[in-house]
From TrEMBL:
PROSITE patterns: FAD_FR (PS51384). One of its GO terms (cellular component) is membrane. It comes from Ferruginivarius sediminum. Its main location: membrane. Keywords: Membrane, Transmembrane, Transmembrane helix. Residues 200-301 form the FAD-binding FR-type domain. It is a multi-pass membrane protein. It holds the Pfam family Ferric_reduct. Its cofactor is [2Fe-2S] cluster. It is found in: Membrane. One of its GO terms (molecular function) is oxidoreductase activity. This is FAD-binding FR-type domain-containing protein. The chain crosses the membrane at residues 31-50, 71-91, 111-132, 144-163, 175-195. The keyword Chloroplast does not apply.
Length: 435
């Protein structure tokens, strides 16, 4: 349904342009205009795709939503890149008086050329800086602010260019569509940067505790500052803001490690990875916090005959939530956790996992890439050998397979599971990085 809706909006400008009944021009001119129209429609819908709306992400997952956002932006960038160069008809400043249909020349005002060129450059810069974000010496929050403001600027410039220069976009119906889509984009930004923070302001949290639980890994616990219930399902994640105004962009996604049955207390397991995560040790109990969410489709299936979890490093966080939930409410069947780490010091909540492993429904398989001398568990990476091990322990293709860890691990394990005839719909995963 979502895909049909998306395709309908993306195709609408082309269909509206075709319905205008202009006399045909050179094929390359029509292709150039078509690319421009489609790119603008994609561009405007990018705002909605990246707005973290649960109506969208709850159905296809946040990582898939973000992947679509990236792929569509790249597609639009190719269209935008080609758009000005494909016109076969020469460009003139202002249309020829006797050629109102624009068959023999493209008449553009100085203003529409200026907005078109600026939007063209800025859009390509936006896409390139997103692709090469890790190589840019700016903080993630600065990049995100620039990305949002830049996107709005591109949309505004393109709107002017389309309405002023467009042979088809000058038509009131298509012009109306552009204005509606542009308004939707602005509304999305207002929702993300004003409405959602205002809602968070009325539902503050405070830090209850911060403590180290393994090498460069922390447990952070927050609780509501005032009475309000937070409903989530085991395996979901939130955007967490600690110590900043909800209007700031200082927030990061983290899986919830506590179970929904733990009450109002919300617990995270966080690995140091950059600015915020590297300063967790400085956070004091009582510090204000805000959350947005919950999001995520890494969810338990109560009908699953058995569950296998593959966790790499801090990818254990959502699995802990699910295991704790199952301990409180009962597991649907046998559960096997494959937990990969570099060294034994990085294993978090080892005692809790060992205690849980005394229960008949649960088994944990540790995998270490740098094992100590006396290690008798699996060694190396969590890969096809680990998948073989869980099948030796009795896993079946119709069980539920939950994956969370580094992208390489997810790909390897998923590939090995598919080879083992596990249907793709029985494999669920959470990616800790949207790239
Ligand atoms: C769905 C999801 C769940 C996650 N759960 C956990 C978890 O339970 N435990 C854990 O340790 N890590 C988790 N992560 C990873 C964690 O979000 C990053 O390590 C953290 O944001 C890094 O922030 P920083 O300020 O320390 O580093 P930075 O240097 O600011 O960021 C490093 C990288 O983290 C990512 N990142 C930073 N801020 C954001 C943001 N606002 N939105 C999206 N990505 C961002 C970007 O890829 C960035 O390049 C999760 C990530 C995702 C997407």
């Amino acid at each position: 349904m979502l895909v049909i809706g998306y395709l309908a909006i993306a195709a609408a400008p082309l269909l509206m342009a075709a319905a205008q009944g202009h006399p045909p021009r050179a094929v390359m001119d029509e292709i150039a205009s078509g690319l421009g129209l489609t790119a603008f429609a994609i561009m405007l819908m990018e705002f909605v795709l990246s707005g973290r709306f649960r109506t969208i992400s709850a159905r296809i997952g946040m990582d898939v939503t973000m992947r679509f956002h990236q792929l569509l932006a790249r597609t639009a960038a190719v269209f935008v890149l080609l758009h000005p160069f494909l016109y076969a008809t020469p460009l003139r400043l202002h249309p020829l008086p006797w050629d109102s249909a624009g068959l023999h020349s493209l008449g553009l005002s100085e203003a529409s050329i200026a907005t078109g060129v600026l939007a063209w450059i800025l859009f390509l810069v936006l896409v390139l800086t997103a692709i090469f974000r890790d190589h840019i010496p700016y903080r993630y929050e600065a990049w995100r602010l620039g990305h949002g403001v830049g996107a709005l600027l591109v949309a505004g410039l393109t709107l002017h260019h389309a309405l002023d220069a467009g042979r088809y976009s000058g038509d009131p119906v298509l012009a109306g569509l552009w204005v509606v889509l542009f308004a939707l984009a602005v509304l999305t930004l207002l929702t993300v940067y004003v409405v959602k923070p205002l809602r968070q302001l009325g539902r503050p949290y405070r830090v209850r505790s911060v403590r180290p639980v393994a090498e460069r890994t922390w447990e952070l616990t927050i609780e509501p500052d005032g009475q309000h219930a937070f409903h989530f399902q085991a395996g979901q994640f939130v955007w967490l803001n600690v110590g900043h105004s909800p209007f700031s962009l200082a927030e990061n996604p983290f899986s919830i490690a506590s179970a929904p049955t733990a009450g109002e207390r919300v617990e995270f397991v966080i690995k140091e990875a950059g600015d915020f995560t590297g300063s967790l040790g400085n956070i004091r109990p009582g510090t204000r916090a805000y959350i947005e969410g919950p999001f995520g489709n890494l969810l338990l299936d109560p009908k699953a005959p058995g569950i296998v979890m593959f966790a790499g490093g801090v990818g254990i966080a959502p699995m802990l939530s699910m295991l704790r939930q199952m301990e409180a409410e009962g597991a649907p069947g046998p559960v096997i956790l494959v937990y990969g780490n570099r060294s034994a010091e990085q294993i978090v909540y080892r005692e809790e996992l060992d205690r849980l492993a005394e229960q008949p429904w649960f088994r944990v398989i540790h995998v270490l890439s740098e094992p100590p001398a006396a290690w008798d568990g699996l060694t190396g990476m969590v890969d096809a050998a680990a998948v073989d091990a869980v099948f030796e322990y009795g896993a079946k293709p119709d069980w539920l397979y939950a994956l969370c860890g580094p992208p390489a691990m997810l790909e390897t394990v998923e590939g090995a599971l598919l080879k083992r005839k596990v249907p793709a719909r029985r494999i669920i995963a959470e990616r800790f990085r949207y790239d």
